[in-house]
Design brief:
35% helix, globular, Rossmann fold, alpha/beta
Length: 299
Amino acid sequence: MYKSGFIAITGRPNSGKSTLLNQLLGEKVSIVSDKPQTTRHKILGILSQKQGEIIFIDTPGIHKPGLELNKRMMRAVYDSLDGIDLLLVLVDATTRFGSGDQYVVDLIRERGLKTILLLNKIDVLKKDKLLPLISMYSQKFDFAEIVPISALKRENLELLIQLTFKYLPEGPAFYPEDQFTDCHERFLVGELVREKVLLNTAEELPYSTTVVVARFEEKGELALIHCDIYVERDSQRKIIIGRQGMKLKKIGTEARSEIESLLGKKAYLDLFVKVKAKWRDDLRFLDSLSINSWTGAGS
Protein backbone atom coordinates (compact mmCIF):
# COMPACT_ATOMS: atom_id res chain seq x y z
CA MET A 1 0.00 0.00 0.00
CA TYR A 2 1.66 3.19 -1.26
CA LYS A 3 0.85 6.41 0.59
CA SER A 4 1.49 10.06 -0.23
CA GLY A 5 0.46 13.44 1.06
CA PHE A 6 1.29 16.98 2.09
CA ILE A 7 2.46 17.83 5.60
CA ALA A 8 3.01 21.39 6.81
CA ILE A 9 5.62 22.12 9.48
CA THR A 10 4.79 25.14 11.61
CA GLY A 11 5.53 26.69 15.00
CA ARG A 12 6.96 29.79 16.58
CA PRO A 13 10.17 31.40 15.26
CA ASN A 14 13.38 29.61 16.25
CA SER A 15 11.66 26.35 17.19
CA GLY A 16 13.84 24.38 14.75
CA LYS A 17 11.54 23.86 11.74
CA SER A 18 14.21 24.28 9.07
CA THR A 19 16.67 22.05 10.93
CA LEU A 20 13.96 19.39 11.16
CA LEU A 21 13.18 19.52 7.45
CA ASN A 22 16.85 19.29 6.45
CA GLN A 23 17.44 16.37 8.80
CA LEU A 24 14.35 14.49 7.61
CA LEU A 25 15.45 14.82 4.00
CA GLY A 26 19.18 14.38 4.52
CA GLU A 27 19.54 17.41 2.25
CA LYS A 28 19.82 21.14 2.91
CA VAL A 29 16.79 22.84 1.38
CA SER A 30 16.03 25.41 4.09
CA ILE A 31 18.63 27.76 5.55
CA VAL A 32 19.30 27.68 9.29
CA SER A 33 20.41 30.30 11.81
CA ASP A 34 19.76 31.14 15.44
CA LYS A 35 18.01 34.35 14.35
CA PRO A 36 14.18 34.41 14.48
CA GLN A 37 12.22 34.68 11.22
CA THR A 38 15.02 33.22 9.12
CA THR A 39 12.53 31.40 6.87
CA ARG A 40 10.50 33.83 4.74
CA HIS A 41 9.01 31.54 2.09
CA LYS A 42 7.18 28.26 1.97
CA ILE A 43 9.90 25.67 1.36
CA LEU A 44 8.92 22.29 -0.07
CA GLY A 45 10.88 19.13 0.74
CA ILE A 46 10.17 15.69 -0.69
CA LEU A 47 10.94 12.43 1.12
CA SER A 48 10.56 9.27 -1.00
CA GLN A 49 10.59 5.84 0.63
CA LYS A 50 9.32 2.39 -0.32
CA GLN A 51 6.03 2.85 1.52
CA GLY A 52 5.31 6.23 0.00
CA GLU A 53 6.12 9.89 -0.53
CA ILE A 54 5.92 12.66 2.08
CA ILE A 55 5.85 16.24 0.85
CA PHE A 56 6.85 18.54 3.70
CA ILE A 57 6.16 22.28 3.65
CA ASP A 58 8.43 24.38 5.88
CA THR A 59 6.82 27.71 6.77
CA PRO A 60 7.88 31.01 8.35
CA GLY A 61 7.62 31.11 12.13
CA ILE A 62 4.23 32.17 13.50
CA HIS A 63 4.53 35.72 14.83
CA LYS A 64 2.54 38.94 15.13
CA PRO A 65 2.95 40.81 11.82
CA GLY A 66 3.80 44.50 11.64
CA LEU A 67 5.56 45.40 8.42
CA GLU A 68 4.33 44.29 5.00
CA LEU A 69 7.12 41.69 4.86
CA ASN A 70 5.83 40.07 8.06
CA LYS A 71 2.24 40.16 6.85
CA ARG A 72 3.28 38.27 3.74
CA MET A 73 5.24 35.76 5.80
CA MET A 74 2.15 35.05 7.91
CA ARG A 75 0.05 34.78 4.76
CA ALA A 76 2.47 32.08 3.62
CA VAL A 77 1.80 30.22 6.89
CA TYR A 78 -1.98 30.38 6.46
CA ASP A 79 -1.78 29.38 2.78
CA SER A 80 0.35 26.35 3.62
CA LEU A 81 -2.40 24.98 5.89
CA ASP A 82 -4.89 24.71 3.02
CA GLY A 83 -5.34 21.23 1.58
CA ILE A 84 -2.76 19.47 3.75
CA ASP A 85 -3.16 15.94 5.07
CA LEU A 86 -1.34 16.47 8.35
CA LEU A 87 0.19 19.26 10.41
CA LEU A 88 3.41 19.05 12.41
CA VAL A 89 3.64 21.69 15.12
CA LEU A 90 7.14 22.19 16.47
CA VAL A 91 7.69 23.52 19.99
CA ASP A 92 10.97 24.45 21.65
CA ALA A 93 10.69 22.26 24.74
CA THR A 94 13.29 24.33 26.60
CA THR A 95 11.16 27.52 26.65
CA ARG A 96 8.20 28.30 28.89
CA PHE A 97 4.70 28.15 27.41
CA GLY A 98 3.58 31.69 26.59
CA SER A 99 1.08 33.74 24.62
CA GLY A 100 2.82 32.90 21.35
CA ASP A 101 2.39 29.17 22.00
CA GLN A 102 -1.26 29.72 22.89
CA TYR A 103 -1.72 31.56 19.60
CA VAL A 104 -0.38 28.51 17.74
CA VAL A 105 -2.73 26.19 19.66
CA ASP A 106 -5.70 28.48 18.90
CA LEU A 107 -4.76 28.53 15.22
CA ILE A 108 -4.73 24.75 14.83
CA ARG A 109 -7.97 24.45 16.84
CA GLU A 110 -9.59 26.98 14.52
CA ARG A 111 -8.44 25.04 11.44
CA GLY A 112 -9.45 21.66 12.88
CA LEU A 113 -6.38 19.96 11.44
CA LYS A 114 -5.06 16.53 12.39
CA THR A 115 -1.89 17.52 14.21
CA ILE A 116 1.23 15.88 15.61
CA LEU A 117 2.98 17.93 18.29
CA LEU A 118 6.76 17.73 18.29
CA LEU A 119 8.58 18.70 21.48
CA ASN A 120 11.98 19.68 20.08
CA LYS A 121 15.41 20.06 21.68
CA ILE A 122 14.94 17.25 24.21
CA ASP A 123 18.70 16.68 24.01
CA VAL A 124 19.14 19.79 26.21
CA LEU A 125 15.97 19.38 28.30
CA LYS A 126 16.14 18.06 31.86
CA LYS A 127 14.51 14.61 31.89
CA ASP A 128 12.16 15.41 34.77
CA LYS A 129 10.64 18.26 32.69
CA LEU A 130 9.45 16.10 29.79
CA LEU A 131 6.46 14.24 31.26
CA PRO A 132 4.89 17.38 32.83
CA LEU A 133 5.33 19.12 29.46
CA ILE A 134 3.56 16.32 27.60
CA SER A 135 0.76 16.37 30.18
CA MET A 136 0.34 20.14 29.89
CA TYR A 137 0.14 20.12 26.09
CA SER A 138 -2.24 17.13 26.03
CA GLN A 139 -4.70 19.29 27.97
CA LYS A 140 -4.37 22.19 25.53
CA PHE A 141 -5.47 20.30 22.41
CA ASP A 142 -6.37 16.79 21.25
CA PHE A 143 -3.17 16.08 19.36
CA ALA A 144 -3.04 12.92 17.24
CA GLU A 145 0.41 12.26 18.70
CA ILE A 146 2.90 14.02 20.98
CA VAL A 147 6.47 13.11 20.05
CA PRO A 148 9.61 14.29 21.88
CA ILE A 149 12.42 14.82 19.36
CA SER A 150 15.81 16.39 18.84
CA ALA A 151 15.94 17.62 15.25
CA LEU A 152 19.62 18.48 15.61
CA LYS A 153 20.59 15.05 16.99
CA ARG A 154 18.05 13.17 14.81
CA GLU A 155 16.49 11.66 17.93
CA ASN A 156 13.12 9.98 17.22
CA LEU A 157 13.06 11.20 13.60
CA GLU A 158 12.63 7.67 12.19
CA LEU A 159 9.70 7.21 14.56
CA LEU A 160 8.25 10.49 13.33
CA ILE A 161 8.50 9.40 9.68
CA GLN A 162 6.64 6.16 10.42
CA LEU A 163 3.95 8.06 12.33
CA THR A 164 3.43 10.48 9.46
CA PHE A 165 2.90 7.58 7.05
CA LYS A 166 0.32 6.22 9.48
CA TYR A 167 -1.85 9.31 8.95
CA LEU A 168 -1.33 9.77 5.20
CA PRO A 169 -3.88 8.56 2.64
CA GLU A 170 -3.20 6.06 -0.12
CA GLY A 171 -2.07 7.82 -3.26
CA PRO A 172 0.47 8.03 -6.08
CA ALA A 173 3.84 9.79 -6.04
CA PHE A 174 3.70 13.44 -7.04
CA TYR A 175 7.44 13.80 -7.79
CA PRO A 176 10.30 11.69 -9.18
CA GLU A 177 11.98 9.49 -6.59
CA ASP A 178 15.30 11.36 -6.76
CA GLN A 179 13.81 14.87 -6.33
CA PHE A 180 14.03 16.35 -2.82
CA THR A 181 12.68 19.87 -3.41
CA ASP A 182 10.96 21.92 -6.09
CA CYS A 183 12.97 25.06 -5.31
CA HIS A 184 15.01 26.46 -8.19
CA GLU A 185 18.81 26.44 -7.82
CA ARG A 186 18.76 30.23 -8.26
CA PHE A 187 16.51 30.56 -5.20
CA LEU A 188 18.67 28.19 -3.14
CA VAL A 189 21.81 30.14 -4.05
CA GLY A 190 20.28 33.40 -2.80
CA GLU A 191 19.17 31.73 0.42
CA LEU A 192 22.65 30.32 1.05
CA VAL A 193 24.15 33.80 0.72
CA ARG A 194 21.52 35.19 3.11
CA GLU A 195 22.28 32.42 5.59
CA LYS A 196 25.97 33.40 5.67
CA VAL A 197 25.00 37.05 6.18
CA LEU A 198 22.87 36.01 9.18
CA LEU A 199 25.62 33.86 10.65
CA ASN A 200 28.25 36.58 10.36
CA THR A 201 26.38 39.72 11.46
CA ALA A 202 24.80 41.29 14.52
CA GLU A 203 21.30 40.86 15.93
CA GLU A 204 19.57 43.78 14.19
CA LEU A 205 20.53 42.78 10.67
CA PRO A 206 18.47 39.62 9.97
CA TYR A 207 15.19 41.48 9.69
CA SER A 208 16.53 44.24 7.44
CA THR A 209 18.62 42.10 5.07
CA THR A 210 17.65 40.31 1.89
CA VAL A 211 19.49 38.89 -1.11
CA VAL A 212 18.68 39.23 -4.81
CA VAL A 213 20.41 36.96 -7.33
CA ALA A 214 20.98 39.42 -10.17
CA ARG A 215 22.93 36.99 -12.36
CA PHE A 216 22.97 33.21 -12.46
CA GLU A 217 24.71 31.77 -15.50
CA GLU A 218 26.20 28.32 -15.93
CA LYS A 219 29.00 27.95 -18.46
CA GLY A 220 30.14 24.37 -18.61
CA GLU A 221 31.83 23.52 -15.32
CA LEU A 222 31.62 27.11 -14.01
CA ALA A 223 28.71 29.06 -12.50
CA LEU A 224 28.83 32.85 -12.71
CA ILE A 225 26.76 34.38 -9.90
CA HIS A 226 26.15 38.00 -8.91
CA CYS A 227 24.15 38.68 -5.75
CA ASP A 228 22.96 42.01 -4.35
CA ILE A 229 22.63 42.11 -0.57
CA TYR A 230 20.06 44.73 0.43
CA VAL A 231 19.93 46.53 3.77
CA GLU A 232 17.91 49.53 4.94
CA ARG A 233 20.61 51.86 6.26
CA ASP A 234 24.18 52.76 5.36
CA SER A 235 25.33 51.79 8.85
CA GLN A 236 24.10 48.24 8.16
CA ARG A 237 25.93 48.22 4.85
CA LYS A 238 29.17 49.02 6.67
CA ILE A 239 28.57 46.16 9.13
CA ILE A 240 28.21 43.60 6.33
CA ILE A 241 31.24 44.87 4.41
CA GLY A 242 33.36 45.02 7.56
CA ARG A 243 36.79 46.49 8.04
CA GLN A 244 38.67 46.53 4.73
CA GLY A 245 35.92 44.35 3.27
CA MET A 246 36.90 41.35 5.38
CA LYS A 247 33.38 40.50 6.63
CA LEU A 248 31.94 40.47 3.10
CA LYS A 249 34.86 38.36 1.92
CA LYS A 250 34.19 35.82 4.68
CA ILE A 251 30.48 35.71 3.79
CA GLY A 252 31.40 35.13 0.14
CA THR A 253 33.90 32.39 0.91
CA GLU A 254 31.47 30.47 3.12
CA ALA A 255 28.58 30.88 0.67
CA ARG A 256 30.67 29.87 -2.36
CA SER A 257 31.72 26.63 -0.67
CA GLU A 258 28.10 25.53 -0.14
CA ILE A 259 26.99 26.80 -3.54
CA GLU A 260 29.66 24.67 -5.24
CA SER A 261 28.44 21.62 -3.28
CA LEU A 262 24.86 22.39 -4.32
CA LEU A 263 25.66 22.88 -8.01
CA GLY A 264 28.41 20.27 -8.29
CA LYS A 265 30.72 22.73 -10.03
CA LYS A 266 33.02 25.69 -9.42
CA ALA A 267 31.34 29.03 -8.76
CA TYR A 268 32.49 32.59 -9.30
CA LEU A 269 30.53 34.63 -6.76
CA ASP A 270 30.29 38.42 -6.75
CA LEU A 271 28.59 40.09 -3.78
CA PHE A 272 27.51 43.74 -3.63
CA VAL A 273 25.84 45.45 -0.67
CA LYS A 274 23.14 48.01 -1.48
CA VAL A 275 20.96 50.30 0.61
CA LYS A 276 17.21 50.40 0.00
CA ALA A 277 15.39 52.29 2.76
CA LYS A 278 12.25 50.65 4.17
CA TRP A 279 12.30 47.80 1.66
CA ARG A 280 10.31 45.62 4.09
CA ASP A 281 7.29 47.88 3.51
CA ASP A 282 7.85 48.36 -0.24
CA LEU A 283 5.14 46.35 -2.03
CA ARG A 284 6.78 46.48 -5.45
CA PHE A 285 10.16 45.40 -4.10
CA LEU A 286 8.61 42.55 -2.10
CA ASP A 287 6.77 41.43 -5.25
CA SER A 288 10.14 41.28 -7.04
CA LEU A 289 11.42 38.99 -4.25
CA SER A 290 8.42 36.65 -4.74
CA ILE A 291 7.78 36.74 -1.00
CA ASN A 292 4.50 34.94 -0.24
CA SER A 293 4.73 32.94 -3.43
CA TRP A 294 5.76 29.31 -3.97
CA THR A 295 9.51 29.04 -4.51
CA GLY A 296 9.37 26.30 -7.08
CA ALA A 297 8.08 26.21 -10.61
CA GLY A 298 6.38 29.42 -11.63
CA SER A 299 7.99 31.66 -9.03
